[in-house]
């Protein structure tokens, strides 16, 4: 809409509001009182007066879990929180007042002046209450809202790999309506439903159905005006319908059909949006009574199980991400702009597909997808399991209807989904409780079928989908795979278990098993901590390099197969998940951006492949402090460097030397001899006969191999024991490098082996452990067990040696790898250990017992100052008393 039109509308509304109101919608987000805990509500006075301590003043969006889910203590508050706000209501005639929530997690009760107005169940859909009859006019009114995010077996999700932040975490509005208005009673929808039963290049048929409510108790004649305006704000069609309400008649459905000749089509490349303005006007006075604006995107689409997806008759591979709605330290309480930013991030990457998982999100998400041209699916949060009860079923169906009706008018939306990996968390053992399991599986399928049928009836114009996990036969045997139109698969071969090739094999197997259903890879991903690196990366080490390998393989496999109609990376962003320990505690790190939306390498990998824009970008471009050991007889250390490019070749300049590499699958790979200190890398690539450049400055900390041949003065060594990882600590500006074995004249460990948790497949990696009292968990997550010595043949001088430990043998009951989609078996092993520590022959600790002194998984540091003389170097001995001595990391600094 143009500015002029806005002004005009605004002026009109202002004029009419002199004698009556059309719709007014405004937030009441600011200055609520908030109390964490439950209270008894009373009619006579405000809750906050009755209990006037412990109330905070907060603004909405708000959650009470943004901090307690990020700390070292497991668990987060799940219970009741009370919100209270006083609002002044002026004397107004014929005005309906609604309170409208975009979302609150998860059960919400609304009270006005101490009286209960209503309750809403479910944390991710919108809802409203008509509070007109509860209000006192010309007075202050007390709004009180009780929100409860306790575990509730009747409301999905029962469990899931994300934090269930409690609170009123999306905008809350007051809506003022005249007594004839579009009805929001239909599951808090807008009351307007737009369909396009026929679209082609030649013409488009548009159907506009509006639900109108007359609350005046009088007969009424109104005019319903529908206008379609194009992108430039010009009206291309206008229709008016006269509608009569008899005295007792409350609701009417008004249907309008409009044909647009030679329509502009909507697509990711050109997301052309019309708008439909629907107005209700008084039949006598012409006064505007209500008004609604909806986007109109004209497109048609089809999924083909063999050939893929077609939009407006043209083939389109759908590639994009999933998205969770949280952000660093904010939990799920985000501003509209923060939601919008994420969708831009996806578009900027070249993505054309978004799975809004695992729940409906803020309205701005779909608005942005309409505007930017991103096709979407939305789903209700039935995750992992169901409850076999009528109440649960009812809530699922209710949520499904809310989802469909509230999001009905978005052209970007093409798929309704429900039930994510619903046979992952089985309440009954498939073997030992076979009979009971089979009943459960039947109930799951029955529920799925009910939801599917319900959705198809509500909206026959879109597809339905169920995303399953990799245990294919479970879903097939239960009959669940024949329920939805599209099958989604969440596949993690090479992460939770198996190897990358297992992914390719699964895809081909799925196509054979389900030749008539379109297949989407609804999830795939690997956890990446952007500060962890390894040139010998392994699954579950959380390194950038492993994540890169994973996505390079998966992307290729997806692109090669037309029958894979689409794929969604898990996930656009890292997100909070309380049950996870990991490299960065309490978060799932499979995002291609971080919790604060720093772009990981994988984001660039996809951008280079998907985007039409020229890309030349260093991989590992956030890795500014590198480190490594000088090669024998040399004063440099050679390390791989990658450049993403959609050109044919890349030239790389380093220290006045030029290297050239061909681009394969969007990557040029180099080996660069890094010298101590500043290293400027410059990459050049010619794309469409223009040259593009990227520059990366690396601060390389060269560590001596033989101290005697090291040119620069030895300053510092930071080594991780039992590890092949490197960890960049930006805050302290240091790089941790992997251990190495001691050799004469050099440094390293003597004896011992890398810590391996005793599990079936090497199982629960220690990189899963949440280390207490450290922000640098990776420093402590690995260790050398049975270490005898750590030696450095440093020159004479004064040194500070810091030894770092954490006992990795847990003494706690952990719920480990909750989202283990492989089948690693976890077993606990508890050993006790005691050892003596000697530095250059002097006992500095005797009977050192980590667990006894500090407990397990707690970061411990001991710093010693040492004078080295007579060329003796530094010798740290570990003498075993009981069990095996360990060391997690060591720092040696010259003073
Ligand atoms: C899944 C789940 C998702 C998890 C993801 C993971 O399959 O659908 O909720 O977060 O795997 O990272 O394990
Ligand atoms: Ca919002």
Automatic annotation (TrEMBL):
Occurrences of domain Malectin (ranges): 765-890
Stretches assigned to the Glycosyl hydrolases family 2 sugar binding domain: 67-176
The family this protein is said to belong to: Belongs to the glycosyl hydrolase 2 family.
Pfam families per UniProt: DUF4982, Glyco_hydro_2, Glyco_hydro_2_C, Glyco_hydro_2_N, Malectin
Domain Glycoside hydrolase family 2 immunoglobulin-like beta-sandwich: 195-299
Keyword set, alphabetical order: Glycosidase, Hydrolase, Signal
GO molecular function: hydrolase activity
Domain of life: Bacteria
Signal peptide: 1-20
Protein name: Glycoside hydrolase family 2 TIM barrel-domain containing protein
Gene3D superfamilies assigned to the protein according to its UniProt record, in alphabetical order: Galactose-binding domain-like (2.60.120.260), Galactose-binding lectin (2.60.120.430), Glycosidases (3.20.20.80), Immunoglobulins (2.60.40.10)
Coiled coil: none
